[in-house]
Amino acid sequence: MKKYLELLAPVLVAALLALLPAPPALAPHAWYFFAIFAGCVVGLILEPLPGAVIGLIGVVVVALLAPWVLFSPGQLSQAGFNAPDQAFHWAVSGFTNSTVWLIFGAFMFALGYEKTGLGRRIALLLVRLMGRRTLTLGYAVMIADTILAPFTPSNTARSGGTIYPVIRNLPPLYDSHPNDPSMRKVGSYLMWTAISSTCVTSTLFLTALAPNLLAIGILQSNTDVSINWGEWFIAAAPVGLVLLLLTPLLTYWFCPPETKSGEAVPRWAAEELAAMGKLTRHEIMLLGLVILALALWVLGGSIIQPALVGLAVISLMLIAGIINWNDILTNKAAWNTFAWFATLVALADGLKSVGFVEWFGALVSEHLAGFSPTLAMVALVAVFFLLHYLFASSTAHTTALLPVMLAAASGIPGLDMHTFALLLLPSIGIMGIITLYGTGPSPVYYGSGYLPAPLYWRLGTIFGAIYLIAWLGFGTPWIHLISG
Questions:
Q1: Rounded to 5 degrees, what angle do the CA atoms 254, 258, 441 make?
Q2: Which of 10, 127, 384, 480 could bridge to 269 as Cys pair (CB 3.0-4.6 Å)?
Q3: Which of 316, 337, 276 is nearest to 112 (CA)?
């Protein structure tokens, strides 16, 4: 019964909204489009079907109903305007979006890390070098995530798929077991350090979280603003790097481990590294390629498009034999994300095309008329952050609320959209810390048995407050400074 209700909920929400009269000053076709968009968001939250399926159904429904949903009467009356062709071109527009291809390319980097074993080797090396003290072991976990983050747009794959399989072996070495009072010896500290670190790295790097890239696509669709890899990093670095350095220490204070030091962890890591053998040729080549990609993302914006960098590196990985074509074909996560985000970018673009974003921006700006531009930006980012309590997916959150926040900001006199975007978009990563369902790897760490719900909620509240205050308190003046 629950499954059927979840399937019906998106349809009912879309139908009920469509039956309501369009608000004043908003065209009926724009209101119908919003109704379908809202139904898709409900589907993304409840997930009765995979997210990619929800997105595909949404664009198909809009395209099929295009004469009533996607186009205004004026467009349809234009000579030579072909609604069916135009509707199809809109429906598949997300699949030609450069940001969507950049996401796909970054997934292939993550595949290379996994297939060559380079990601696991990096984690084990750090554990061996820094594992004698529990605090420095926490820093080893953080550093490993930071090294992998720029080339792994799925924090689930990075933290849940690479870091977690390594660190889950560590607590039992000190007689720290899940769902047991002994979990506080080492296990709780390590697990919280891992999940909080990946939330910060997801903010620090544009390519460390797929919804970051989705947000860039939505930003470009709804405004004239674009942000590249270097701009994002420069905006996020001062706060992000400080939070990274503080996170293992903050965890040490707020979730103190009972065991402070020991030799078992570095000894185990050394045994695992010995079993892996020497650094392979493919690992060395992959390391060179990801450094090349990073350099081109940061410095080569005027020479080569970032998405093309990803495709070029994939080609080189295939030529070198680091991955093969079958690896790409069978990478379900990459293809699923590609289809999912392509449809969501099209739906978000449609909100602007039908005039909904412009209308909503004017509506919200009326209520923020007394706010200064800076205060309005801070308020909108805080609301965007705290509303994440309602979402079990960063992707659903971004899809549902980012166009709304951009629309609200666009109607505020004196507010610079480029500055606002640099303040708003990176918060998508750090907000994942506040709940045990807030980001992809959260359920992995919650399910480890080392972070029971009361402890998770308490730490999530503390770290969420620290991250938000740091981001707004120090990030706002810094981003204003670099934006001129």
A1: 55
A2: 127
A3: 316
Q: Is the pTM of this model over 0.85?
A: no
What are 133's strand-pairing partners? 261
Count Cα neighbours of 161 within 13 Å in the Cβ-side half-sphere: 19
Give Cα 226 to chain centroid, integer Å. 17
> How far is Cα 341 from Cα 164, in angstroms, rounded to an integer?
26
Question: In angstroms, rounded to a whole number, what is the distance separating the alpha carbons of residues 60 and 54?
Answer: 10
The type of residue at 83 is A
State the sign of the Cα–Cα–Cα–Cα dihedral 300, 304, 310, 315: negative
The 10s digit of each residue's pLDDT in 187-243 is: 899 999 999 999 999 999 998 998 998 899 889 888 888 898 889 999 999 999 999
Tell which residue, 463, 480, 445, has the closest CA to residue 156: 445
- 476: which DSSP letter? H
Angstrom CA distances, 445 to 44, 189, 197, 387, stand at 22, 11, 12, 22
Q: Give the count of beta carbons closer than 10 Å to the beta carbon of residue 339.
A: 19
Specify which residues 261 forms β-bridges with: 133
